[in-house]
Each structure stands twice: as C-alpha cells, then as structure tokens.
Amino acid sequence: MEFQFDLSHIAHDQIIKIDNSLLPVGYQKEDPELQRMISNVLDKMGVASGIAQELKSPITSAEKLMRSDHILYLMTEQTSPGHFVVVGLLKMGWKKLYLFNKKGSRTEAMVYCLLDFYIHETRQRHGYGIKLMDYMLKDNQIEARQLAVDQPTNKLLQFLWKYFNLSKLVNQGNNFVIFEEFFEDPSEKESANDNRSSGYKSQPTFGRHGAARQQDCMANILYGAKPAEIQNGNGHVDRVEHQQRENKQHQDERHVEVQHHVEVQHHHHVMDEGDGQTSNQAHPKLDIKNFHTQL
C-alpha cells in the first residue's frame, strides 16, 4: 500500500516496531508529524485487513492501539530511493485466558496473542508473511506453538500448518485458537528424542496430566529394581545380581531334590530288611556325583 509521505527516516529496517505512543519503539523525541503519518498508515492498513478477513469493522486502528498495551509490527519495502510502501502488519498483545487442553483440564495463564495479521494482496505468496512472523518470534524469544490466535482465517491456519506444522486445534469455547503443541514441555520433548528407547511422551504442564508417570518396566515389577537405581543407570548391575540369585536358587533346588531321592531309596531299603524279605533284583547304585546330569 503506497502513501504520499516519506518513511525513510524511520524505515531503517524493513520492519518497524510500534507501541501505543504511535512512535517506533526506542524513538527518543516527540514528533507529532510522525505520529500523524503512522496513524494514517495504521488506519488504512487496518481497514484493508478487516476487508480481507470479512470483518464487520476493523480490529486495528491508531485509536485502538493508543488505548492498549499492544505492539504492532509494520513491514515496509523500498521501491525506489526515498520511496517506501507498506507491505503488511502484525499486531500482538498479552491477554489473560482460561485455557482448556484436549482432556478438558483448565488453567488460567497470561498468553501472548496474535491479534491481527495482514499482508497486502500485491505482496502475498512472496515470503513476506513468514519473514514478518519470524521477526516477531525472535524479537519475543517465543515459538509459534505458544501463541493464541484470535479468530484465525482459513488462510492463517494454512499458513501456520505450512510453516510451523501446527494443525491440531484445541477448542477453547471463545474466539481464540491454540494448538495441542501449546501444552508440550520442550525439555521433556528433547529428552524423549535423546532416549528413544524410553517410550515416554511429553505431558501437559498442568492438572492431572502434570503428575509424574509411574515406572511400568516389567523388569521392575518382576525383580523389584528400585527406580533410583534405574534412573542412575544401575540396571545392568541389578540384572547381574538377579542372575546370581537365580543360579543359587537352582543349585539349592537340585540339592534338595537329590537329597530327597537319597532318603526315599534309603527308606525302601530299610522296609525290605524289616520284613525279612530279600529282593530278587538289586537296587541300582546311585551315583550322586553324576546324578544332576540325568535330571
């Protein structure tokens, strides 16, 4: 969108960050003329954004910005020496929202919200939108998944899916949209990627889903391994000790079985002598040394 005034003295960078003073952030002096120019730009761009989104009235204007603590990112482009055009705008602001995750748990939090996003029709599909979004994300040191989006259009949803792989919406019962990834803990996600054999997924950060999951490894249940030992990497030592205990148990069982067999043979021999009877067939001699090989 072209304007009849020169923005070269503030458009040192392609993107200008403007606050509720209607001046670039960090601008050191009062400048009513510059405020008038920026006010004109915001009003016209706000109207164009409202038409593109088929809204009843614009959601961005100079007056609305002055009465808020929102931040507006204005993107410009130099078409010739000393001549600039305004390409797009992105309005952001903090809001206290009640958030519901996909399980229905609710929490109250301050969330950074995307309130208005518009790229002029003559500059769409040329990479301006993702450049403006990336600038805002880096400026606030935030990820796209952490944003709440106010009344997104289908175009904006497709944009977020294309560039940030965000597609699973969580219904909030209001005009704001968040994605399932909003509730992910980055540290848990990185830990799961580093140790793929663990099989554990990241959990939501609040409600009953925030509780630590119980260790369900079958080795822990059968052998009674302590969670602290598993977490400290002593699982191999526990398996060796268990194997030793198992071998000793098998040896004890063989000893008891051999001892029992000897006692039975001795009992039969005593009964035969007590009855005064002689057996026509001699009892086989038991070789204790090699008995266990015959079992």
Explain how this protein is built.
The protein is of the alpha+beta class and 295 residues long. It is built from nine helices and seven strands; from the N terminus they run βααβββαβαββααααα. Strands 1-2-3-4-5-7-6 form a seven-stranded mixed sheet. It is elongated, with a radius of gyration of 38 Å. The chain starts with 14 loop residues before the first strand and ends with a helix. About 19% of the residues have low confidence. It catalyses: L-lysyl-[alpha-tubulin] + acetyl-CoA = N(6)-acetyl-L-lysyl-[alpha-tubulin] + CoA + H(+). Keywords: Acyltransferase, Transferase. This is Alpha-tubulin N-acetyltransferase. It comes from Acyrthosiphon pisum. One of its GO terms (biological process) is regulation of microtubule cytoskeleton organization.
